[in-house]
Amino acid sequence: MIPFNAPPVVGTELEYMQSAMGSGKLCGDGGFTRRCQQWMENRFGSRKVLLTPSCTASLEMAAILIAIQPGDEVIMPSYTFVSTANAFVLRGATIVFVDIRPDTLNIDETLIEAAITEKTKAIVPVHYAGVACEMDTIMALAEKHGLYVVEDAAQGVMSTYKGKALGTIGHIGCFSFHETKNYTAGGEGGATLINDPALVERAEIIREKGTNRSQFFRGQVDKYTWRDIGSSYLMADLQAAYLWAQLEAATRINDQRLRLWQNYYDALKPVADSGRIELPIIPQDCQHNAHMFYIKLADNDDRSALINWLKEAEILAVFHYIPLHSSPAGQRFGRFHGTDNYTQAESERLLRLPLFYNLSANNQKTVINSLLSYF
What is the CATH number that goes with domain 250-374? Predict the structure, then answer.
């Protein structure tokens, strides 16, 4: 079976993990954590990067950091993973879902302002497939209405919008290093990017269970105490060691994924030109990271038939995201503003193809040939 995904392996992970084991510092904020954080601060230009156990944890940390309270409203797309909404629901917020654009499957920035009320606290753009939302418009709306912007850049590591790294444009950005992402911390992992200087000190406190422990270890205070609400949002240094191997090879991984993405695009473009499928669209101002390659079929039946065809050829292709507003919890904790013109319809015809760093050329050719045979 050709899998849909396999975690990236570059070859130095074990060496660095053994080094972490020998350091006597396996919990959070060890040497490998500091290396990863500094690398991302320098590479992406974020004011402060803090590694976390997952992107879910980063989003939850962001919700605490911007002081989400019961009764607040948070605007986001419905076509996203459940963690995007859960983080704010846990703080008592109501989720206001807005329709997506059919070209990028990102939140439709032209529909956001109409969804803003006096209760709105934040906008959460999700950069689907590592392709940027229209951030200039979103940031202008946030400034006009006094709102926070929390970027869900789980899929966006190494992607840019007008030359700016995704996750560094809003007040806070959230990365994922889950095994399904371009870079992994050995299975799970995330990072919170703090781009507003006014939020840095409190972010460190929230991440350290509500204490000023980070300041204590830097010698800024003579003892650390409980200062605020918080939780345990530190990534283990053993995981950071695995992640460091990946970040050292970040450009190589990115280039290889882009090559694989382009192979699919070039091979399937004649099928798209015939009107049989639709291929991903990358806006001019966006540099994507080849997080995924998807095609859009005519409808759900067409997609199901292709999934079964590929399964017969021992190829695993998947779809994802039942829109949150159609789920029981989504109906309980949120509402859809306006008309759902695209969210449900697009979700029912999208199919993701196998794409991962270690995908061999022969296996990708097998996938492509199977697709061409079907069409």
Answer: 3.90.1150.10
